[in-house]
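Fold this sequence, please.
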Amino acid sequence: MGSLDKSSGAEVVTIDVKATKGLLGSGYTYLDVRTVEEYNKGHVDGERIVNIPYMFNTPEGRVKNPNFLKEVSGVCKEEDKLLVVIIHSLTYP
């Protein structure tokens, strides 16, 4: 269920919750790219959890975060292994 991004050499793979939990325990950074509003409704707790929105909600609709790559680069090193969360809606107990 994965694909390879040939331009960057980064492997993109879809994984389930159990695999995610295991990777978090082995040093991965959990990058949640949902909007601030979505993140504030509920998110994973942990040591290496970062919320950097890819999109912002505005009165005109959603717009891309123009500083997204700069913000990610400010928090993550090139050699870091990332789990990127792109789910738009989560239900928490």
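The helical segments are 17-24, 36-41, 68-75. Residues 1-6 have pLDDT under 50 and may be disordered.
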